[in-house]
Amino acid sequence: MAGLSIWHVLIFAIVVILLFGTSKLKNLGKDVGGAVKDFKKSIKEDEVATPNLQEPRTLEHQNTHDVNSTVKH
């Protein structure tokens, strides 16, 4: 584990808890969890809102779309 024993990790955790306190660490955990949840939600909404980008588009398909959009009705 890159030269770190369990004792090094334990001492580091104790120092962090003493510096920041458990309430700040708890709030930090909630904030990070909320940010991850919002990020996942926005990714799912993007996948639903956008068309299937896996299909290759040909120039012919693109030109047909451009011609149709420039024609005045």
TrEMBL record:
BP GO annotations: protein transport by the Tat complex
Keyword terms: Cell membrane, Membrane, Protein transport, Translocation, Transmembrane, Transmembrane helix, Transport
Keyword rRNA-binding applies: no
Record-given protein name: Sec-independent protein translocase protein TatA
Superkingdom field: Bacteria
Main function: Part of the twin-arginine translocation (Tat) system that transports large folded proteins containing a characteristic twin-arginine motif in their signal peptide across membranes. TatA could form the protein-conducting channel of the Tat system.
Family per record: Belongs to the TatA/E family.
GO molecular-function terms, A-Z: protein transmembrane transporter activity
Membrane-topology descriptor: Single-pass membrane protein
Predominant localisation class: membrane
GO CC terms, sorted: TAT protein transport complex
Species annotation: Acinetobacter piscicola
Cellular localisation: Cell membrane
Lineage: Bacteria, Pseudomonadati, Pseudomonadota, Gammaproteobacteria, Moraxellales
Region: Disordered, residue numbers: 50-73
Subunit and partners: The Tat system comprises two distinct complexes: a TatABC complex, containing multiple copies of TatA, TatB and TatC subunits, and a separate TatA complex, containing only TatA subunits. Substrates initially bind to the TatABC complex, which probably triggers association of the separate TatA complex to form the active translocon.
Transmembrane annotation, as ranges: 6-22
Listed InterPro entries: TatA/B/E (IPR003369), TatA/E (IPR006312)
